[in-house]
Please model this.
Amino acid sequence: MPTVSQDDLLELVDAALAADYTRVRRAGSKIAGELDDENAARALRALIRRKGVPLRASGYAESLPVDGKSRLPLIEEQPWPTTPVFLSDTNGAVVTSFLEDVRNADLLSSKGLSTRLSMLLAGPPGTGKTLLAGHVAAQLGRPLYTVRLDSVISSLLGDTAKNIRSIFDFVPAREAVLFIDEMDAVAKVRDDRHELGELKRVVNTVIQGLDSLDDRAVVLAATNHPQLLDPAIWRRFPYKVDLGLPDASARADLWRHFLFEGNVVAEQLTQALAAVAEGLSGADIQNIALSARRHAALAGGSVDAGSVVWAVLQSRKGQLTLPTRLGVPADHRKELALHLSGAAVKAIDIARLLGVTRQTVGAYLKETGRAA
Ligand SMILES: Nc1ncnc2c1ncn2[C@@H]1O[C@H](COP(=O)(O)OP(=O)(O)O)[C@@H](O)[C@H]1O
Ligand SMILES: [Mg+2]
Model:
């Protein structure tokens, strides 16, 4: 066993987390000296000597472009996501072909078939646009640089164009994925300031920026309001993914992952929840599921599916409602049974969800003229 001192290990981790590259090297060399295994020590020294440090470890953070006045960063590097993204088959196919085109950019360009490597992600809030951008970056093994146009634009009038330019000047030098989040902020300029002249300037600067990037630059943009985007911007994104609200099969995936942690025993329940959760976003489903699991964990029991269904139905009325510790209020069970039955959930599953007998469900439905 190597006898690396605890202090040196702590120093190494501390330096790494501070992205202090010089200290990482120093601590690494010291540890190499402590290793008994000569091969391991040599390998470690080789690592330390290597030039071209990966971006995320090189302490580059100080060099991110900032707003001249506020000194706030215009771009943030975001970590790759740790949870999966669930896409419809159509969207999955678009993303796959985008990734293939990026990976084979040189080959395609040698055959005169290159295209802009830019993809527009459209969809309502909470449908996984930011998450998907992270997955694209992770798949390509590149850092994800997120620009929030709304923060870039909220600065002083004349500085906006300067900010946008410094973002595009910064990016080509790095093998990265540039993610322009809240692209519709460009359209918001029009609403907020009634100033067409300024809007035009901002849009033009973004377009110039996009056009100035080299062929191999990967750009993603997200918007909640694709119809508001300027057609000239729209045209510059040959790949389009319309995320929309999740369909029944994506909803089932989301419940399976966030509520049941992939447990197949709960399959019927999953299907029932997927049926009732129509109209909810992925983020809504995640929030409801995690809240239910927190209650279960604190109560030392299992998830109360009835209270999840109840929260889903309440949320469908427009405002996200989380499940409560109290479960389904008794006087709402009938209402819930009707809803579930309307969503084609079988009586036996309704009984399980509500924690009542099959006969009770039958009685609820009969009372209101529905056969069980
Ligand atoms: N299609 C999806 N697949 C998996 N998780 C999703 C999906 N949509 C939303 N989520 C969950 O909701 C969270 C918020 O989604 P986000 O990507 O921030 O949405 P958007 O950027 O579209 O507003 C994600 O981090 C993820 O946990
Ligand atoms: Mg987002």
About this structure: Confidence is low (pLDDT under 50) at residues 52-59. The chain has three domains: 6-55, 64-242, 248-367. The radius of gyration is 26 Å.
